[in-house]
Amino acid sequence: PSILRPHCLARQRLLMWRPASAPPRSTQSDNDRSLSEREIERILSVIGTSWSESTKELYGTGLLIFHVYCDINNIPDHLRAPVSTNSFTAFLSSCTGAYSGSTIANYAAAVKAWHLLHRMEWMVKDAEYKALLEGATRLAPSSSKRPKHDPFTVDILKRFSLLMNLDDPRDAAIFACLTCSFFCIACLGEFMVPAISKFNPSKHITRASFALTQNHEGLPVMHFSLPSTKTSKEGEEVHCAPHDQNSRLDPKGALDCHFRTNLDRESAHLFTWKHPSGGLRPLSKKEVTKRIDTIIKGQSDLPDRKGHSLCIGGTLFYLLKGVPFNIVKTMGRWSSKLFTLYLRHHAIILAPFLQQHP
After folding, report:
1. Among the record's GO biological process terms, what is one (predicted)?
2. Dihedral (C-alpha) 108, 113, 116, 121: value to the nearest 10 degrees?
3. Higher pLDDT, 231 or 55
C-alpha cells in the first residue's frame, strides 16, 4: 500500500495514482505563470477524458502490473516516473514469453500514458520502444494467440433466421442486430451495450439514431448514427440498403420485426427487448454471445463463429458482389494500413480474386 496509489477502480488509476516526483508547475516559455493545485487537477481531468472508459480500464491493469514489477524488484517510487530506459525495458522483457504481444503493448502504452497524463518526461526512445514490442510479439506463447475469425456468410445467417424464433422478443432483437451489423460492416459491439447497466444514450446507439433515407437516385438507404466509437468520440455513420421484402435476410424487415415486437421510446437503445421477467432491456454483448453459442452448439454442421465474424463476413459479401475494394474499405471505416493487413490475414477474401483469369 502507498499513499501514491490509493485503492480505486482500474479505470481511475491513471488519474489517481501519482508519481512521487511532482510535475513541473511552469515551463521555460511560461516561467512567470505557475499553476495552482486546482488548475493541475483540471488539466489532469481534461487530458484523462481523451481515453475511453474501456481503454482506461485496460491501462489501469497495465499500470498495476508495472508497479507490481517495481515492488518485486525494489524499484523506489521516485525512479518509476520518469522511468529510465533500463527499468522500462527490463519490465517489458519480464513480461515477454508470458503474455501476448498485444497485452504487452497495452502495458507499455499504459506506462507511457501515465507519464503523459502527469506531465512526466518520457525518456524511452521510439526505436527501442518499437523493437521491444516487435520482439515481445514474436516471443509470445502460442496459447496467447487467438485463432483467426472465420466469416459469417449469408447461408449461415439464413440458418440462424430459421433456427431463431423471430416472434420471441430476444430473438427478434438479436437477429436484427446481427443482420444490421453484417450488412453495415459494423463491429457488433457498436450495436450493443457492454452490460445492461451501462447503457448511455450519449455513447450507445438509440432508436432515434436510425433513419430510412434515400440517395440521390431515390434508392432507399438505412442510416445509422453511432454516437461514439473506439476510433471517433464524435461518432460515425454506417449504412446499408434494404433487400427484397421477401428475403429472410432483409435488414429493414428484421429491424421492423424487432420494432413491432419490442415497442419502446425513441431515446431507448436501438435493440431493447422485452425480458420475460418484465421490462425492457438494452441488448448486451453477453446476451448476443450466449445466443450465438447456443445455436452453433445445437447444430453439429454449423461452424463456430464469433461476433467479429460478422464484420469479416460483411466485407466478403460485398467484395464477392463486385463492390470495389475502396468502397468496401470506406463502408467498413478502415484506415488504408488496417484494411491491407485485414485482407492479408483473411485469404478467403482474396481467394476469389486470385482465381480470376486476366
Report:
1. DNA recombination
2. -10
3. 55
